[in-house]
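Teaching assistant's notes for section 4

Start the section by putting this record on the projector. Ask students to predict, before seeing the second block, whether LysR family transcriptional regulator will look compact or extended. Collect guesses on the board.
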Amino acid sequence: MIDIHKLKAFVAVVEESNISHAAVRLNMQQPPLTRLIKSLEDELDTALLTRLPRGVEVTEAGKALYQEALTILAHAQAIPKRVQNISKGLEGQINIGFTNSVGLHSFLPSLLRNFREAFPNVSIHLEEDGSSALIDSILNQKNDIVFLRKPAPMSLGLTSLHVLDEPLIVALPNNHPLVEHADPIHLLDLEPYDFVLYRRLAGQDLFDNILASCYQSGFSPNIVQEAPRLTSSLNLIAAGIGLSIVPEAIQDFWNKQIVYKTLEAETPCIAPIYAIYKENLDRIHLKHILKLLMK
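Reveal the predicted structure now:
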């Protein structure tokens, strides 16, 4: 590995074309500078300078080293500032995960916008996945924080912060018999009809939440089709295959051939959102995200 002090000395000599002038620029004596250059040439086993009666001239090999040295020195000079910026949270990256249904809620883009305004030079990495994979990503420190529809298991030692409760609503094909039903629709009124649901493997938290609400109302939904994503279930509803229970925010994304109605039951039908993270992570960016969530 080449000593950075030798590179600084070499750059000065090349730019001054004179060892004596370079020594003055470096605030050192000429003999030690001459020895530094000679040591560098010995280390690389090549001549970097041609000695002239009145100065030096850089060789082709020296020109190549000079360009590389400028890059290395510029990078080395920037390191302290970047390290300080990262320690202050002014640079770096934050990794955020979320399930598909959470990603459709307006709170997430609003949160990211506010974070970006506070830390414009921090990169935001987003990952959409199922809840189990996202929990693993926190345990493995791949993500700093994830947003799910239920809290993390207490046995894992993770912190679950309740962010909000989103109402669940009914999504009906526009030719469905319940379209003319008075609004709101009682959950038990959905019992006779076919259901389309977001596949449990992809949206376990939301799927289980919906089924629990139905069970509490006294019936088990007749699920005729499961969709790989919450948004793709809307295509099936629009096609008349069945109705569904969906988070309220979904109606902002699709209303063609679908009618949305409010839902009521003895127990409120809601889909909560939780922020899951490791409490012991001392991360400035994570702390700011949590501060924004708690406003």
